[in-house]
Amino acid sequence: MTAGSDAVQDLLPLVFAAPNEALTQAEAVLRRRPTPLHASVAHQVIGIWQRDFGDTRLALRHLRRARDWAARAGSADREADVLATLGVALVHSGRTRQGLDALGRGVRRGTGHTRARVLFRRAYAWWVLGHHKEALEDVRRAVPVLRHAGDVIWTARALTLRATVHLALGAVERAEADFASAEDLWAVTDQEHDKADAVESRGLAAFRSGDVPAALRLLDEAEERYAKLGTPTFMLSIRRCEVLMAAGLAAEALAEADTAIAELDSIGGQSTRKAELLLAAARAARQADDPATATARAELAVRLFAGQRRTWWEAQARLVLIGARHAAGKGSGKLVADAAAVAGTLAGLGAPAAPEAFLLAGRIALDLGRPADAEPYLAVAARSRHNGPPLARMTGWAAQALRARAAGSTRGVLEACRRGLDVLDDHRMTLGASELRARATAQGAELAALAQQAALRSGGPRRLLVWSERWRATALSAPPTRPPADPELLSHMTAYREIAARAEEARMEGRPVPALEREQRRLERAIRSRTLHMRGEAHGDDARFDAGRLLERLGDGVRLVELVVVDGRVQVLLCGQGRVRRFEAGLLAAAEAEAEHVQAGLRRLAHPGAQARLPVVEAAGRRLEELLLGPAAAHLGEGPVVIVPPGRLHRVPWALLPSLRERVVSVSPSASSWLRARETRPPRGGRKVLVRGPGLATGGAEVTRLAARYSGATVLEHGEASVPRVLAELDGAGLAHIAAHGTFRTDGPMFSSLRMADGPLIVHDFERLGRSPYRIILSCCDTARFATVGADELLGLVTALLPLGTAGVVACSAPVNDAAVVPLMLALHEGLAAGLPLPEALRDARAALPPDPLHRATGWAFTAFGAA
């Protein structure tokens, strides 16, 4: 290409099709002493590249040169086009007045088709600034002219922008129509960057319509397209943060926003994007219960938006700032007034966040003991309960619940909470991944807490039980959507096992593994990404919890103890003999601290020579009983006991508590889960599967002995104990015993694993089973550890099995002595062979062990889950 060729004009569309190629060609044009017209085009291309992907200071320098060369060329339309590009760059750099002035000059200078393009870019600037009415007006004037001129590219851009403005105003259907029209136009062009932007916009539209899995899938697809073009993705990061927060992944959203901010600062990127990323980070930190970080990010965002004259955005940032200050314990009449002022501003701008702001003003006023002041704000917020996306309707129902509480109406509180949680139920079941279902429950934590407080005040233990069950272990109410027969996902999982196995081997040999660990993390991200894209297929358990049915199934002999935490204190609901009784126990925080002390003691007792710790651990068990059961311990009767603890108490070794040591004890995530397990039928044939993984200190000694006991069992060991073979045999088995090293991942509970011959068997693998074993025994460390997420949900190996057909599990919550595990497991299987259910067999197996501290600690570390 020569400097005088007509192809120079083609560089402008090329910068949005292949940005880096356009940059290279523009720089080549300038090295050849071009004409003023072509110099103007080349500088404009470089300015666009720097504005969108690089240093805004360099962008402004090149665009001013482009403007000067356009003036020398004597082309009014050329000058108008450059002024439009310069105006957008000035707005992005925070020089709002100068940017709007340049755009206004461009509109006046241009004619016809060129003027329509300038109008589009001014509309874009209005959108960036949050002036949506002005943006829609400029687009309305531009679109007919662009269509009449047959300008496919610019018409598609204008439709995409109009759709984005509609989304900002909450008009999802209008946005989807414009996105569809734009996509049809993009299909006939080669504008690859614009096409990637269109995919990103469709992801935003999917999110606004309530389809989180589709939003994540489309945003990931857009990121892949941008990566091929080698362009940064700051706007994509902002949008992904919003979706991640809606999915309950606030910590990930905060990390993404902070990473993008650092990258933007390193290249001197757009000031407007930095402000938006700071707002995203502040929102994520607020949701992640980090008010200090939320306050710091929001304060900086407010300053930047104010300097950029972006009233819409400034109001959004002020809303987050006020919420963070309230979460940090600050409350005053001024804070109420500030929240009300922000709410009024947002309502005047037509912002969908207005109800949230009115709710915040009302909540602060209530906390100050001013219900009369709160009522008008809550009344406005409550109007959103019937319309809009799920989270907006939940805001409305939360406001309605607070209004009812202030008015002293228990019935009104419970009705509002029920309606709000129904909305969230519908939303959760659109999510296919069990992780997302569990994390999404965080959105309903306030409603669940309000309902439990109202139920406790009303004095009815049965009502409190029903409301506790309404929002407990809901992620386990239906099996997760099966991962698709996706060749890429299966390939990633196979590669992950291989890399993890190589890394483990290298560590054992003392070799460095940073490269293997990086590849393992990359594969984990890829696997998780593919599973989060799954859309929900199950409809959950439509039958509401029935306390009468529970009491009927318990009969006179079994007691179910459901522990409910209301305002930080443990309430004990003792179910049995046809009634529900309530007892008040200790503080949850004290119980959590004591449980950690117990875990530390059990870890020490797993090693010979630590017998002096036994009295300390037993004393901690007595204190735990006082904190968790209180006076209810004296009313447990003589029969089996089912414990239903809150998620934060999942590490309690219940068999250590004095009143439970000699009993048949099982644990369940919820009373509903126990009922389902009790009513689950064992599979025909009752196949038995024994698995021995590599590297065990005892060589998995119990497996050899059990193989002799169960003559027809399938035994998988050595090379046969591979993940595909193990999964195939486990599917639909009656009893499975797995002796393998367990690893719990606090940073990624869905990658908690059992070590097989070819690498880790992870939670994601278990979710591929058609039906998990009816009974399964995991005779290894840490298999009963969980991550507590959402409102009161657990993620881990055991919780992956329960929704898939497993009625009973025995697993371990602490490190144990491998040699001491062998006699416990053999005794456990003796009980099973005699026809006992798992909880009773485990009780008898503990009693059969030697009385020394090592074996006693080993017995306490194992727990029976479920009812089989």
General form:
globular
Number of strands: 16
Count of individual helical segments: 38
The percentage helix is: 55-70%
Q: Rg, please?
A: 31 Å
As a percent range, the share of strand residues is 5-15%
| Structural class based on helices, strands and sheet pairing | alpha/beta
Outline of the structure:
The protein is α/β, with parallel strands linked by helices and 868 residues long. The chain has 38 helices and 16 strands.
Mind explaining what this structure looks like?
This protein is α/β, with parallel strands linked by helices. 61% of the residues lie in helices and 9% in strands. The protein has a 6-stranded mixed β-sheet, with helices on both faces. The protein has a 5-stranded mixed β-sheet with strand order 3-2-1-4-5. α9 packs parallel to α11.
Kindly list the characteristics that best describe this protein:
868 residues, alpha/beta, 6-stranded mixed β-sheet, 5-stranded mixed β-sheet, 38 helices, 16 strands, disordered N terminus
